Structures are given as C-alpha cells and as structure tokens.
C-alpha cells in the first residue's frame, strides 16, 4: 500500500508542479515577484476542498456526466489562460506587467482543483482506516516530494538559461502543457459521450505505453494518448494553432500600433 | 431600407448566444438508444464481475456501482478512462468502439485488490 500511495500522490501533483515550475521561471525572467504563488496555492487548495466536498452531487449532474463536464470546463479555461500568458510573453511590457500575474494565479489555482480534490477524496477514505495515519502521511510526503522535485528541476533548468533561450523554452512548454490540457478535456468529454469517437487512428503503445512511467509523465504534462481518435487529433492541432495564431496576430497588431506612434 | 438587428426580435444578445451554444451542444450529443449497457459493481474493494465481456467495434455504456462506503477511482490506461466514484454512489462512463482484445482496468485507491479485465469480442 505504501508504494500505491506514493504513486497516487505523485501522479496527482506532477501536472501542477511542472506548470508551477514553468510559470515561476516566467515570473523570474519578466521581473515579476514570485510571491503570487502563495495566494494561488491557497486559492487552489480551498477550491479543491470545496470541489471534493461537492463531488458527490456534481457527479450526478447531466446523467452522471457532471464530473467530466466540470473538469473539462476547467481544463479548457486553463488552456485559454496559458494561451493568454504565451501571447503576453511576446507582447509589450506594459501589457505583460498588467495582466500576467493575475493569469498565472488563476491558472495555478485551477490546475490544483481537479487533482487536489481527488487527493482529498483519497485521503478521506484512507484515513478512515484505523492505524493508517502515519503510513499515509509518510508515503504521501514521499510522493509529494518527488512531484515537487520535478517542478523545481524544471524551474532551475529554465532560469539558468539565457533570457531569450529560456523564453523560447517557456513558450514551447506552455503551448504543449496548454494543448495537453485541452486534449485531456476532450478525453473527458469522450468518456461521457458528449463527443462521439470512432476507432483509434494509430496505436503507439509499442513505443510509449500509457501505463509506463514515461507514458504517465507524458499524459500528466502533455495529455499524451497512445490510441487517439481522429477528433482528438484534429482538436489537438486546432488548440495548438489557436495559441500560435493568437501570438502572431497580437505581434502583428502590436508592431503596427508601435509603427503608428513613431513620427 | 433599414438594416435588420437581432434586437428587433426582442431577444437579448446574451440569451441568443446561450441558445446558440445549447443548440450546438445538444445537436452534437449522440443518441443513446442503441448503446448497450453493462454493469460493474465494486464491493469489498473488488470488481464484480472481474471479467466483463462486451461487443467489439461498438460503443458501450458502463454503469459502475460502488457498494463500498469508501470512494474508488475507476482507472484504465488501455481504455483511457479515469473517474472517481464516491462511496455508496454510482456513475456512468462510455467505452469503445473497441478492437477485439483484452483491456485491463483497476481501482486506483485499492490497486492491490480492485483489478478487472474488459474483453471485447
């Protein structure tokens, strides 16, 4: 059971941890105070607790599709928030300073809600068993430590780069994480048949099985699926194209407005 | 000739947008009538039946009933499915269309005991 708890806690914390690591490195490179992480985590923990307490009722909404619909909604919102952050990375400093901190607080808080609520539910069940408190606490701490380490490694790997190199990596990672969130949302809607699918287009489990450690990391961070359907592939590339298109459009208009200002 | 405005219909734009979204969502929702349903029960941290046969190449509706007082998370890497089911509650997930074969699933909160296989044939 000890190893089970470590794996569960690690799986639930990995996604938010990597996202936090990348966003903190963005703060560092754009001279934004890193303290925004504390209100984000407090807000995320409180919302996760509230969501966990309401999960029974929410699950029965829409003919038992409530959990997926709400989770997918949150994932799509995180995708949009990360898309906006990427746009602001390539925008003028005034805009970036004004909006990026609020967007990062919202993205981290929301990313903590789904996985955090699952951890609350798991721990509520586990702690009801007699004599399990110490075991749950120690193995949970190990899982949490490994998950947080991934974010810390990501953070230092990015902040030790030259600013223009780091910015490129941050943008690519945020686009991939954001698109992964959209992919996970699509998978949730498929699970309750709100999006209908046919047979998978390919099976890459021979290369990276979803049950493997690599597969689980890729799923948690980038929404990897070994057997995607056509609709998932299309929606994945549309999500990616929407962020890249927005960056290009914003760049175009920012440059044009700058040119107009010049004498 | 004056231009037409939606305001002339007496419908606020926010409500019109809501109607448009709902119409799109419901028109995308598939008809459930032809989807066969199968039941899985969780009891004493075990799945009953632990081997469930379903038709291949067809979407199926799985009704999962958790008879334990504690929550469980139905999980399957091969089926790409993951869902928390609180104690004493039930839920629904859809799987497939599946190619013929065996697809394992498990209860994430009780991995050592809650194991099962879905056989598509």
Structure description:
The complex is a heterodimer of chains A (263) and B (121). Chain A is an all-alpha fold and 263 residues long. The radius of gyration of chain A is 20 Å and the shape is globular. Chain A has 9 helices and no strands. The longest helix of chain A is centred in the middle third of the chain and has 35 residues, at 93-127. Chain B has 121 residues and is mainly beta. Chain B contains 1 helix and 9 strands, in the order αβββββββββ. In chain B, the strands form 2 sheets. Chain B has a 5-stranded mixed β-sheet, with no helix packed on it. In chain B, strands 2-1-4-7 form a 4-stranded mixed β-sheet, with no helix packed on it. The mean pLDDT of chain B is 81. The chains are: A mainly alpha (263), B mainly beta (121).
How can the largest sheet of chain B be summarized? 5 strands, mixed
**Gyration radius over CA of chain B:** 21 Å
Main pleated sheet of chain A: none
What percentage of the residues of chain A does DSSP assign to strands (E)? under 5%
Q: Which sequence of SSEs, written as H and E, runs from N to C of chain A? A: HHHHHHHHH
Radius of gyration of chain A: 20 Å
Q: What is the end-to-end distance of chain A?
A: 70 Å
Biggest interface between protein chains, with counts per chain?
Answer: A-B, 37 and 34 residues
């Amino acid at each position: 059971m000890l190893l089970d708890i470590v794996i569960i806690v690690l799986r639930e914390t990995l996604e938010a941890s990597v996202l936090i690591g990348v966003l903190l490195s963005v703060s560092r490179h754009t001279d934004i105070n890193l303290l925004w992480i504390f209100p984000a985590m407090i807000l995320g923990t409180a919302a996760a607790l509230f969501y966990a307490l309401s999960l029974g009722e929410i699950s029965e909404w829409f003919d038992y599709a409530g959990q997926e619909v709400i989770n997918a909604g949150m994932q799509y919102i995180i995708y949009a928030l990360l898309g906006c952050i990427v746009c602001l990375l390539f925008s003028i400093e005034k805009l970036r300073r004004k909006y990026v901190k609020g967007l990062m607080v919202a993205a981290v808080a929301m990313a903590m809600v789904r996985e955090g609520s699952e951890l609350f539910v798991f721990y509520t069940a586990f702690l009801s068993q007699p004599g399990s408190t110490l075991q749950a606490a120690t193995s949970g701490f190990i899982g949490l430590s490994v998950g947080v380490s991934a974010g810390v490694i990501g953070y230092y790997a990015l902040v030790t780069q030259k600013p223009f190199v780091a910015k490129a990596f941050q943008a690519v990672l945020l686009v991939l994480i954001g698109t992964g969130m959209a992919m996970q949302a699509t998978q949730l809607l498929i699970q309750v048949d709100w999006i209908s699918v046919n047979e998978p287009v390919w099976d890459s489990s021979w290369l990276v099985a979803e049950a493997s450690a690599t597969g689980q990391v890729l799923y948690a961070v980038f929404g990897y699926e070994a057997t995607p359907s056509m609709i998932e592939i299309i929606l994945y590339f549309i999500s990616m194209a929407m962020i890249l298109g927005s960056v290009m459009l914003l760049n175009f208009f920012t440059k044009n407005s700058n040119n107009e200002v010049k004498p | 000739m004056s231009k037409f405005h939606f305001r002339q219909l007496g419908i606020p734009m926010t409500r019109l947008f809501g109607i448009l979204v709902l119409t799109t969502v419901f028109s995308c929702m598939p008809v459930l009538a032809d989807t066969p349903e199968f039941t899985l029960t969780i009891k004493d941290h075990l799945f009953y039946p632990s081997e469930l046969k379903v038709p291949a190449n067809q979407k199926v509706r799985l009704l999962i009933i958790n008879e334990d007082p504690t929550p469980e998370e139905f999980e399957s890497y091969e089926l790409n499915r993951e869902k928390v089911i609180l104690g004493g509650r039930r839920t629904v997930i859809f799987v497939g269309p599946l190619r013929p074969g065996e697809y394992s699933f498990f209860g994430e909160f009780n991995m050592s005991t809650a194991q099962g296989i879905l056989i598509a044939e």
